[in-house]
């Protein structure tokens, strides 16, 4: 009997096993749900306290707020990220996103794939650009808005992609960054916080399926007043595509 583990120790052991199955980590609420299912007769307060105290466990770290991860997890993460052979090019997601942001999110009345070097300067060219214009049936007519998006299929250098999305605010009323849902939870948490601070919209998607990317909005873009000199400059380059 002297070696019998307490319920808190049993919960900790169970959490270690679950974290080993999820090398990118599990959030506090996810662990609580798993523990409650595994130990249905344990009081909610005991479960809450046991999961909360996991941060003091020598084999568990918290890379970001509310996220628990094994301290040995980076090796498993590297193995998971090595399966990039099944991923597709960014260009294969341009048209699906242009349709989604128009038909489902309704941020645009028309959007087109762009990419490449259409704008011909070092500040870069959005992967998708669109406009939101008033319809003839609208009672109150509003000014036309320009919406830009930066899409990344690779989870590396997301901060660089975020910087590009920020630069699009120079000529866009709204700017979005579109990143793989397979990105690490720590990276997504940081992007989420930065998006709120800078007014950038954050969209997640499945980077393995261009036919059904399952775009999901995590943070809607805030409206920005761009520099109209640059807005007009770049709109002239896509006038035939967006303004028929």
What does this structure look like?
This protein is α+β, with helices and mostly antiparallel strands and 244 residues long. The protein has nine helices and nine strands. The strands form two sheets. A six-stranded mixed beta sheet has the order 4-5-6-7-8-9, with helices on both faces. Helix 7 links the parallel strand 7 and strand 8. The N and C termini lie far apart (81 Å). About 5% of the residues have low confidence.
Through-space gap between termini: 81 Å
Helix share, percent: 25-40%
Strand order of the biggest β-sheet = 4-5-6-7-8-9
Order of helices and strands: HEHHEEHHEEEHEHEEHH
- Measured by DSSP, the beta-strand proportion falls in 15-25%
Number of strands: 9
Biggest sheet architecture: 6 strands, mixed
The number of helical segments is: 9
By secondary-structure content and strand pairing, the structural class works out as: alpha+beta
Please summarize what this structure is.
The protein has 244 residues and is of the alpha+beta class.
Supply database-style keywords:
244 residues; 6-stranded mixed sheet; 9 helices; single chain; alpha+beta; 3-stranded antiparallel sheet
Please specify the SSE layout and strand pairing.
Elements: H1 7-21, E1 26-27, H2 28-38, H3 44-52, E2 60-64, E3 67-70, H4 73-81, H5 91-103, E4 110-113, E5 128-132, E6 145-151, H6 158-167, E7 174-180, H7 185-198, E8 201-205, E9 216-219, H8 228-235, H9 239-242
Parallel strand pairs: 6-7, 7-8
Antiparallel strand pairs: 1-3, 2-3, 4-5, 5-6, 8-9
Helix pairs in contact: 1-3, 2-3, 6-7
């Amino acid at each position: 009997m002297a070696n019998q583990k307490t319920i808190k120790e049993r919960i900790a052991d169970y959490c270690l096993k679950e974290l080993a199955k999820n090398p990118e980590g599990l959030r506090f609420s996810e662990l609580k749900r798993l523990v409650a299912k595994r130990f249905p007769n344990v009081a909610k307060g005991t479960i809450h306290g046991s999961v909360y105290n996991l941060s003091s466990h020598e084999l568990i770290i918290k890379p970001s707020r509310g996220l628990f991860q094994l301290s040995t997890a980076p090796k498993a993460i590297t193995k998971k990220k090595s399966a990039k052979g099944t991923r597709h090019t960014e260009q294969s997601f341009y048209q699906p996103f242009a349709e989604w942001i128009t038909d489902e999110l309704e941020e645009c009345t028309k959007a087109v794939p762009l990419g490449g070097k259409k704008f011909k300067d070092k500040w870069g060219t959005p992967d998708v650009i669109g406009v939101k214009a008033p319809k003839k049936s609208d009672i109150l007519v509003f000014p036309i808005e320009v919406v830009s998006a930066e899409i990344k299929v690779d989870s590396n250098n997301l901060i660089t992609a975020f910087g590009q999305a920020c630069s699009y605010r120079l000529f866009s009323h709204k700017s979005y960054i579109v990143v793989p849902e397979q990105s690490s939870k720590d990276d997504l948490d940081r992007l989420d916080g930065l998006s709120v601070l800078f007014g950038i919209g954050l969209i997640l998607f499945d980077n393995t399926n261009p036919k059904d990317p399952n775009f999901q909005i995590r943070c809607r873009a805030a409206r920005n007043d761009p520099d109209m000199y640059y807005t007009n400059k770049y709109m002239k380059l896509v006038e035939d595509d967006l303004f028929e």
